[in-house]
């Protein structure tokens, strides 16, 4: 699955794409009502990377901070400074995200710990932006640690949470799927999606084979289907399942039929 970032890679290694001419994938989303299909040609979903930093100082009693080197303070300023990368160093028309999702440090309210850890994710649609973000995240954390007399160990290699590339739809396959979707759910329910900062390891398939990734709406407030995938309240309107199956099968049938006609 995309949560590990390795599913598509493993399947490619197993030869799943051998002799494959085109590929199509769907993901349910709460953004659109049930049965609405949406995507866009070209760049669609962002690529993502992760980082984890352990900032080390010198522990001690919180009543005498002068005898310690406080990693909590270094972590705090690192988190704040990371936000300025996107807000002050990035072109506002070039969508990027840096988010810290985890802070761990200390075991007691009156003790300054020896170390504290932060971890987060960064997202962008371009390789240039990706490598620039990765470099600046390391620079900012190391600099903030040094300001507060601490040291920093940073893992941004993608070993724990593998790097996923941007999802880029092939324009020809996108148009084919858009036409098929409109025939099944109607032109009024086939939409041009915005760019999404979420990531999907389907991107690795698209680097090997022309294809397109679509999203299919599941929103139905009457049954509580209005929460995002990682919410504990997530649920779907199962009426969408045959719609998704129909789009998948119609894509395969029509694409193969067209390929056969061209071959003749």
TrEMBL record:
Keywords: Hydrolase, Manganese. One of its GO terms (biological process) is auxin metabolic process. Pfam families: M20_dimer, Peptidase_M20. SUPFAM superfamilies: Bacterial exopeptidase dimerisation domain, Zn-dependent exopeptidases. Its EC number is 3.5.1.-. Residues 47-146 form the Peptidase M20 dimerisation domain. Gene3D superfamilies: 3.30.70.360, Zn peptidases. GO terms for molecular function: IAA-Ala conjugate hydrolase activity. Coiled coil: none annotated. It comes from the Eukaryota. GO terms for cellular component: endoplasmic reticulum. InterPro entries: Amidohydrolase, Bact_exopeptidase_dim_dom, Peptidase_M20, Peptidase_M20_dimer. Belongs to the peptidase M20 family. This is Putative IAA-amino acid hydrolase ILR1-like 4.
């Amino acid at each position: 699955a995309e949560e590990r970032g390795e599913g598509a890679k493993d399947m490619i290694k197993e030869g799943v794409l051998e002799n494959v001419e085109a590929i199509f994938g769907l993901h349910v989303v709460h953004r659109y009502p049930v049965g609405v299909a949406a995507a866009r040609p070209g760049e669609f979903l962002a690529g993502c990377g992760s980082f984890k930093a352990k900032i080390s100082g010198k522990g001690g009693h919180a009543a005498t901070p002068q005898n310690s080197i406080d990693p909590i303070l270094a972590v705090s300023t690192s988190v704040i400074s990371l936000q300025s990368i996107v807000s002050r160093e990035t072109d506002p028309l070039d969508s990027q995200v840096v988010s810290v999702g985890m802070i761990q440090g200390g075991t007691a309210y009156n003790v300054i710990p020896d170390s504290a850890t932060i971890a987060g994710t960064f997202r962008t649609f371009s390789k240039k932006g990706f490598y620039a973000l990765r470099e600046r995240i390391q620079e900012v954390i190391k600099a903030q640690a040094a300001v507060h007399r601490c040291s920093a160990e940073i893992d941004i290699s993608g070993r724990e949470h593998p790097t996923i590339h941007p999802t880029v739809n092939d324009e020809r396959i996108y148009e084919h799927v858009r036409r098929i979707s409109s025939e099944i759910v109607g032109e009024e329910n086939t939409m041009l999606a915005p760019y999404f900062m979420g990531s999907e390891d389907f991107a690795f398939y698209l680097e090997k084979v022309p294809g397109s990734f679509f999203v299919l709406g599941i929103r139905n407030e009457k049954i509580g289907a209005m929460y995002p995938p990682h919410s504990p309240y997530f649920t779907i309107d199962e009426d969408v399942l045959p719609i998704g199956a129909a789009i998948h099968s119609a894509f395969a049938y029509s694409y193969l039929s067209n390929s056969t006609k061209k071959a003749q």
